[in-house]
Each structure stands twice: as structure tokens, then as C-alpha cells.
Give the backbone structure.
Amino acid sequence: MTAPDPGYVDWLVSQSMLKAAQDRAKTYAGQSRLWMNPYGQAQPRRAIEIASVWLTVYPDSIIAPDGGSVLEALAAESLWKGLSELGVQGIHTGPIKRAGGIRGRGFTPSVDGNFDRISFEIDPLYGTEQELIQVSRMAAAHNAVTIDDSIPSHTGKGADFRLAELAYGEYPGIYHMVEIREEDWGLLPDVPAGRDAVNLTPVQCDELKARHYIVGQLQRVIFFEPGVKETDWSATAVIVGVDGKPRRWVYLHYFKEGQPSLNWLDPTFAAQQLIIGDALHAIDCLGARGLRLDANGFLGVELRDGETAWSESHPLSITGNQLLGGVIRKAGGFSFQELNLTLDDISQMSKGGADLSYDFITRPAYQHALLTGDTAFLRLMLWEMHKFGIDPASLIHALQNHDELTTELVHFWTLHANEMYSYKGQTFPGSILREHIREEMYELLSGEHAPYNLRFVTNGISCTTVSIITAALGIRDLSSLSMEQKRLIEKIHLLLVMYNAMQPGVFALSGWDLVGALPLPAEQVAERMGDGDTRWIHRGGYDLADLAPSECHSVMGMPRATSLYGSLSQQLGDSESFASRVKKVLAVRQAYGIASSRQLLVPDVSHPGLLVMVHELPAGRGIQITALNFGNQTISEEIALEGFSPGPVVDMLNETVEGDLSDSGRLLINLDPYEGLSLRVVSSSGHV
């Protein structure tokens, strides 16, 4: 075994993200560019003013004309005409930079939907940099912005990781990786031919901790799969470094083996250079106005004797997010985090980190409400949100996204496992409440009850919004839905739109929601699910603007999903379609500034299916009330809204008077099954 060819090392350096970031940083040195905007505090309401309705797309699912690229399709004027009419103000493209890995001088494919980034360049599978810039320009022409991604917790196994394995320069400092002495190689698993690493068993992980190599097992194993990923550590084969020394490394990966974790507290500060350079490149070169911080809660890991390593709620994650969020604000952008952790963490990390947080607080709760017809757990989570001082306007309230429906309920699993909670007249510790909710959701949403939805590892279910609804309705066979069933599905889908849109914050819906996508049959994506990743069933292809109506697969080969509603273009021509009804909801939301309102009250109610949220509208426009029926029974209930000025109550969607808020603060709510109302107290002067 010999040292690598210097020419090959130079090529790796030219491909590396750290080198690109260092080169880019020189353009800011000594300039005023990054001193013109406030940056120290998160600014959620400023982000809402920029864009409060988002379309989230998944690049692998985009259908384009034969020979066309994903980015060409996303820049189509006909698409943006429809999105503008709908009320979309921002498009989150998902990760579209080159991802995967490098073997020799060849590129290997992504192992996690392009969330294993290896370059600042646009992945040629999706298009070109100029095409992405055109998406930004087309969005701007329709009063919208583009939103890109930063992935501060890991990379793929690209040039940066290969240079780290070669012990070149500061590159090993990018990652949580440790050189194992040759006399201890016997502790490591053999790496089969064709593989470049093997996951450690818990026993091997514990032994390496005992010998003071690594911090040991983490508090949880994301993507746990027996025989595939039993710990968050893997060992490399023997690699000869640039100095001629053979080495074996053990490296951390919170996610998949091909996603080595970044070390946010190494003396080289190489990880910070890489990630901040990537973020500024997206804003200044690609035209993005916002950035998602993906998996940004996993930036700190620390040794604890006799216990698993401290890897959840670590202060370094807060510090890292403040650095990254601050730089993005300095550059004039905003950021949001997909942080599925405790409410404590979300509250803490929102202080100076990302401007917005994905609503993992109530997302599984509103889906539980639909599945059970009971809003008790949803109301509990809304109350908990206020208890922790989390402003609903700082959240992104979303329908389907690229990930599974998570049932982790981390808040009740870690810090609050032993805290007591009142639920449906009984008191439970958090851990027991969590298991009860999870069991209900698993039973109603998968298995024999809904065989078209699949479990995703240990903490989630792969499904579309429509297939959550069909499961709630007890429909087992999706191949022969009646027209009556389709109309009911559409009605319930609109109810979920109203829950998310008719409260403060960002409202996000996906292309799958707009077309009413069903899950793909598992056999159609069996090859992609070889590692147990069932999420591919809910990532079917779609074509919002009818750019390629005869194409059966996306540009990336995803089969076209069965669509209940048709394309966005088709629907906007029908005033009774799902998209046209969503358009009406969003128009009312925009006209009254509901996104910028303040949530005053989530009152307790008697009927299990009822949810009521009360908001103070901006600019003295009065009080808005969102009333939703998550059940299949008619509701007629008088609720108490004490402290508000009386007056006529208007249905904001239909512009009809629906009664009065009395002097005593009593209001009668009448709702049909799965109906939603947005009400405004006309003469209210606000909360007294």
C-alpha cells in the first residue's frame, strides 16, 4: 500500500467544499457587505413579511418534459402563473446541490435524497446553476422568493471526507472521526469488499469508549435498523494517508453511514468555515432568500461516564445555530429549522438561531386528532407551546413534506418522561402518554387498517396527507375510491389546510398535497427501499403545470403518483376544485393578515372533535376565530370568550353573518362533520 498520488490529492482539494468556502470568504474580508443588517436575534415576523405561504417541492419527484431538467420545470412561467394565483409567496426547492460521495475520481449517488451534500455546485441530475438562478428570477417576477438548504450536521462522503481519511491538512477536523491505533484494529469489524465502512455494534462501541477513543453510544440511534445501523459509529477500511501511514478511522454519523457528522468544536473550525461558506454561496450566488437548517439540533456530542454520550439538548447546538442564523441574517436572508426535539430545545434555539421552526409541536397532534376524532392531545400540545413561550408565528405549519409522519414525540421521551400530564380526564407521566398516542397512531394509520402506509424504522409512518385521511375514514383499498369518498377526502384535506393556514406563522403545502397524491405501491419503489427507507412510497412524481402530461416518471425516475385532484393548472380552472378552495382560504388569510396575528386563546371545549383558536388580527382589525371539527359528528356548542368586545360574527370565507358574540362572551359554534370556519368579530376592539 502506497501514499496517494499528489495529483489525485490536488484534484480532491479542488472538489472540496472547505476549499470553496475559504475562497469565498476572501470576498467578504474588509468589506461592508455583512454589516448592513441586524443579526443577533431571531426575527420570525420579519420572515413572515417576506413570505408567509410556501410551496415545498421535492426535486426527485418533479416531472418534466422529455429532455428537460427539474430546474427548468420549476422555472416554467405557466407554473408560476398558477402558484401566484394560488397565493404562494415562497418555494422551498429542497436540497439540489451535488450529493452522495466520491470513489476514486467518480461520483456515487446520494444515499439520502441529496441530504448528503458534497459540493456547492448544482447537482447535474437536477440542472444547472443558471437554471436555478432563473427559478429565483421567475419567483421574484411573481412576488415570491426561493428557499434553499444548509445542512450543518453532516456531509456526504465527498472530497472533504476522502481528504479527511487521507489525514490531509485540517480536513480530519471537519468530522467527528478518530484514528484507531494499529494494535487495536482487532476491535474493529472487517470491511467487506465493495464497502468502505462498517457500522459498529454496541459492544464494539462500548469497548472503544472504554479505551478512550470515542464518547460511546448516543442517546438515540436515528434510522436504527438491526444489522444495518445499530449505533451511530462506523469504522473505515485501512487507508494510507498522504504521509504514507496506514490508518483505520472510526467516525460518527447521526444519520446514515454515508453522512459523516461535522465537528462543531474542533480547533481548526473547519466545519464552521464549510457550512457558513455554503450558506453565503446560496444567498449571494444562487439568489436564495431563505435557508432551511436541516438536522441542526445535532451539533454537540460530549462524553459522560457511565452513560450514553450527551447528544440531545447540547449547548453547542444553540451556539452553532446562533453563528449560522446570525450570518444568514447578516446577508439579508432568513432561516428555519427542522428540529424534532423537545419544546425546551425549540424555545432555546429560537432565541438567536433560526428565525422559524418547523411545527413538529402540533404536526403529529393534529394528525392524531383527525385519526381519532378527538382534539384533546392537540389542545394539550397547543397549551404546552404557550407554556414554553413559543410564538405560533415563529412556526412553519405544514402539510406533507419529504419525510415520514414522525411519531417520536421526543418531548415526552427525554426531559419530560416523568412529568405528569392531564389528558382526557386522567393523569399520565409523559412516557406513558407518549406510548399511548403512538400506539393509537400506528394502529389507525398502518398495518391491517391501512396497508398502503408503511412503518418507517422505529418512530414514524410513511404516508401522504391523502392516505392519512383515508386511514382516518377506515378505507383499506385505494384502488376503487368512489366519487363520494373523493369529495369527503377533499373536504377533510381542506380542514387540515385551515388548521395550518388560519393561525399565525408560515403555512406550507407540498406538490403532493396540491395534486392529492396517493402513496406508491411498495413494489414500484422496492429497489430504493433496500436499506429499509420506506419514505419513497410517499414521494411519487407529480406535474403541477401539465408540462408533461404523458410522462409516467419524474426526471429522477420516480413513478408518477396517482392524483385525486389533478394538476394545479386543471384545478384553477374549476372553482369547486381543491386548489381553488385553498386559494380562497389563502386570500382571506392574506387580506386580514392572519399570518401576522397573535394567538390569544385556545379554549377548552366539551365536544371531543372541536378545536377553537382565537387570534388578535394586526392593525386593529379585531378578533379572528378558527373553529374546526375533526370528527364525523355535527357540533353545536357554546364557547366562552370572556374579555372580548361583543359584536356580530362574520364567516370570513362566505361573508355571511353567523351570529353574535354576546356581552357575556358566549359564542355558539355550529359545525358539520369535518367542517372548518374562520370567523371575525366585526366590532371587536381587541382583547380587554
Summary: The longest strand covers residues 246-252. Residues 597-681 form a domain with the Immunoglobulin-like fold (CATH 2.60.40.1180).
